[in-house]
Amino acid sequence: MKGEGDLDLGVGDPAVGHGVGDELVGQEDDATFIREWQPIMAPGLLQTPAYAQAVIAASPHYIEPERAAQLVKVRMGRQAKIEEGGASYTAILWEAVLTQPLVSLEIHREQLSAILEVGNRKNVTVQVLPVSAGVLAGYSCAFYSFSFDDEPTVEAVAMDNLRGTSVLEGAEDLAAYANAFDLLRSSALTPDASAKLIRGILRSLKEDTS
């Protein structure tokens, strides 16, 4: 890891902005605790192959089909640590991620079902920040935070962008994002209430297409 500045990774490869930069993958591989706030789309660590393919294909930059397939494969590989219980993972999603599909309804429904399934794992917590939380949803862009020891102290924060992944390690930055995540988590629905909401949205989507 470098010092307190941002790391601009994958410059010249805009596809890295989809969360597959080497630095981000390295942080996830080493982490014991991973936390993610996502106000726009399903978190990469929870995405189905079809959802990942759809959002990568929708990049504002053209991506060769072979490269897109590689990015999907990498994204699925990133999920292995969560599947194997190698890290504790907490994701907070804004409710609009669930109610406003960015992909086809079929892929979106499959994605919601996958979130419910993964959320049942002992090492995974999924919470939804309701629309009623208001402006809080715009408090921060999407970000990941990582801890590398037995205690969940935030030791690195990462954010995707169009040019790569920025990583923050300065003490003030870490404290700011740790506080931001705590604020989002305290305002979010409980895991059980979040799962109930997701099931309700999933049912309504199925009824709309029946």
Helical residues, percent: 40-55%
The whole-number mean of residue pLDDT values reads 87
Based on CA inertia axes, which overall geometry fits? Answer: globular
Structural category is alpha/beta
Between the first and last Cα atoms, what is the distance in angstroms?
Answer: 51 Å
Strand content: 15-25%
Task: Give the biggest sheet.
Answer: 6 strands, mixed
DSSP summary, beta strand count: 6
What radius of gyration results from the CA coordinates?
16 Å
Number of distinct helices:
8
Give me the strand/helix succession. HEHHHEHHEEEEHH
Which strand order does the major sheet show? 3-2-1-4-5-6
Can you tell me the residue ranges where pLDDT is under 50 for at least 5 consecutive residues? 1-20
TL;DR?
The chain has 210 residues and is α/β, with parallel strands linked by helices. The chain is 43% helix and 17% strand.
